[in-house]
Specification:
337 residues; mainly alpha
């Protein structure tokens, strides 16, 4: 039994390679890959039967099965195992805000909201751009109060239309803003890096060794805004080289505090929030609305990021340079839909 349980053939899903090079998957291999991709578990009887009969390689049959599988409750695995991991929103408990008003129920509200929101886009056949532009979300009374949404009563979550454009899409979600903050303050660096990596698909380089990255207020120092501390840090040309790229998207989100609430005044520094910023290209932005417009200005950027991430998830490996023609083909063919 120990030998069986230790065998790579038991522990891993493997597809045999052909000595002569790439080959087409047979129907049973395709059924397995498709099922683990969309459901995170093995194929059901219907999929196995079709594969065993050699019908799954038929395009019409395959498309019908994909539609059926995405309509099945098991497709929620795409949200739980793919989307939350891609967006780094699957471990909200890694952040424990020091603000007294924050509690575990607020974290649970954020977790419920982001799951329902991602499901509403990814599993309802919507455009992936609506991950950024969606004018709806899911709230209960407690979360609605935190977002400033009126006329929501009760603990159950329901879909609401947002009036505040700053809250549209992923950039306005409490889960995103909490996960990209420190316990005691916001972090334009973490938020900027999140936008670059998770949305734009261009992850920044890690900081060089022995570089001071703690921007906390030292004992005895007069309180200043995070922006002011960051600008002082960027006076070092070595730091500016990276921060000039990373910080602008994060600074555009600075009106959201460390727990995701909107603010106009920095409560610590007693100073007005400045969310204006300038990209390395020279383009000026101010606030989350203009940041969203910038992210959507390159129409293929977000679809390319998602296609690459989905392909990595489906194939269980990193994307290589020789995969990019296929990625571009997927994005191009999906552009009109």
């Amino acid at each position: 039994v120990t030998a069986i349980l230790s065998s790579p053939d038991f522990l891993y899903r493997a597809i045999e390679t052909a000595p002569e090079g790439p080959r087409t998957l047979n129907d049973l291999e395709l059924a397995s890959r498709l099922s683990y991709f969309l459901w995170s578990q093995g194929p059901d009887d219907e999929l196995i039967t079709l594969a065993a009969d050699g019908q799954l390689s038929n395009d019409a049959t395959l498309q019908a099965q994909i539609t059926r599988m995405l309509d099945h409750p098991r497709a929620q695995a795409l949200v739980e195992n793919f989307a939350l991991a891609w967006l780094n929103l699957d471990e909200l408990d890694a952040i424990e805000p020091t603000e007294r008003s924050f509690n575990s129920s607020m974290r649970r509200n954020y977790e419920a909201e982001i799951r329902l929101f991602l499901s509403s886009v990814l599993l309802e056949d919507r455009s992936v751009n609506e991950l950024l532009t969606a004018d709806w979300t899911f709230v209960n009374e407690s979360l609605a109060r935190q977002y400033g949404i009126a006329d929501v009563r009760g603990t159950q979550f329901r879909k609401v239309t947002l009036q505040d454009e700053n809250r549209f899409g992923l950039l306005g979600k409490g889960a995103t803003l909490l996960r990209t903050s420190y316990a005691d303050r916001t972090s334009p660096v973490l938020r900027g890096a999140w936008v670059l990596d998770r949305i734009m698909g261009t992850p920044p380089s890690p900081p060089p060794p022995n570089v001071e990255v703690d921007l906390s207020i030292r004992e005895g120092e007069a309180p200043t805004t995070v922006r002011a501390r960051l600008e002082k840090h960027r006076e070092n040309p070595t730091c500016q080289a990276c921060h000039g790229l990373i910080d602008p998207p994060g600074l555009a989100l600075e009106n959201f505090d460390a727990t995701g609430r909107w603010r106009d005044i920095d409560a610590v520094a007693k100073a007005r929030i400045d969310a204006s910023t300038v990209l390395t290209s020279g383009k000026k932005m101010n606030g989350p609305i203009e940041l969203r417009q910038h992210l959507l200005s390159r129409t293929d950027q977000l679809p390319t990021t998602i296609t690459k991430r989905l392909m990595m998830y489906a194939l269980n490996r990193e994307i290589e340079y020789f995969d990019m023609p296929q990625v571009r083909k997927v994005v191009s063919e999906a552009a009109n839909d």
